[in-house]
């Protein structure tokens, strides 16, 4: 990478001093940091499942190194971040990848997927009280893999998936956990989705990403209201679409992490979606290679991610955690700063207005990779950035001020 030491000039509108800043590796001092925990206690894998019951995350199944599907399960105690292997595996012959999972009360569920014998349409229930698996009623339709799900009240909703003959199906099913019965809800109004990401939050269901029936990977974002049985499209993801990504809920908002785009780029970026303000915010990226297909879940205040496969197609057993990722405040209207010109050719000016104490500026590309980063030690009101070494394209400009992160999309011609 080129030396970007002189890529900008800092202009203080009062003193007109030109300050020299030194680049550092991207470490967001005011944002929350990722912590690497003990490895997943079994063979590396991707495309497994996870669900949380109480203070325990249950993780397993998936595709192991050597192209072997798995049925083994392990538990992570979320109070002390320790792994346990004393968890019953799925019954022999039920090993799988591309399953979907959900939990309710003391029960965890695993639906569908694909194994050595083909696609599954079955549903298994795990009882955390006695560490046993029980077969429930299978979906009264064809077997599928790569579906997504969320739970609202006593009902689990299953969306999409693929079959041996269809890239992405559009079926929408509801499963009553109390009565062990299935109800067909019709087709998804936005079409089929394979390996989309879904989660419930604040009484509604959310679905993002996925590959459609034409093998196009989407960045569209939808919300389902169970009171009206209607899907509504909301603010699309501000970056490229993905599959193998993870969406979780934390502090009544949504988090999006990792995934794979249509050009086979894997991501290490973390995004926060505020349901109240319908705005997106990029948080601190994982300090490791981009990845996809891992197991992701949350506790009261933390996001966890374990296993998966990285940008080099290496299967992993790493486990990572980030605490309070949504604690960085959202932008407010009166604090937004100006950027001009945008799009730009060689340089761009940032006028911070009422934003005080900017202490770090970072430019990230559409793959979530940090291109340039700097720290600022003096209070400034205006900055001219010389960006003639950037290749034409779309970038995310991230400015950190105390406990706030401001994001802007910039375009270079």
CATH 4th-level superfamily of the largest domain: Kelch-type beta propeller
CATH topology of the largest domain: Neuraminidase
Question: What is the SS-derived class?
Answer: mainly beta
- Helicity level, as a percent range? under 10%
CATH architecture of the largest domain: 6 Propeller
Write down how many β-strands occur, each being a DSSP E stretch of 2 or more residues: 36
Average of per-residue pLDDT values: 87
- Total domain units: 2
Could you describe the largest sheet, including whether it forms a barrel? Answer: 5 strands, antiparallel
Structure description:
The protein is mainly beta and 413 residues long. The chain has 2 domains: 8-30 and 331-412, Sandwich (Immunoglobulin-like); 34-327, Neuraminidase (6 Propeller), CATH 2.120.10. It has strands at residues 8-11, 18-19, 34-37, 45-46, 49-53, 56-64, 68-77, 82-84, 100-104, 107-115, 118-127, 132-136, 148-152, 155-159, 171-176, 181-187, 197-201, 204-208, 221-225, 230-233, 246-250, 253-257, 270-274, 279-282, 291-292, 295-298, 302-306, 309-310, 319-323, 338-340, 347-351, 358-364, 370-375, 382-386, 393-401, 404-412.
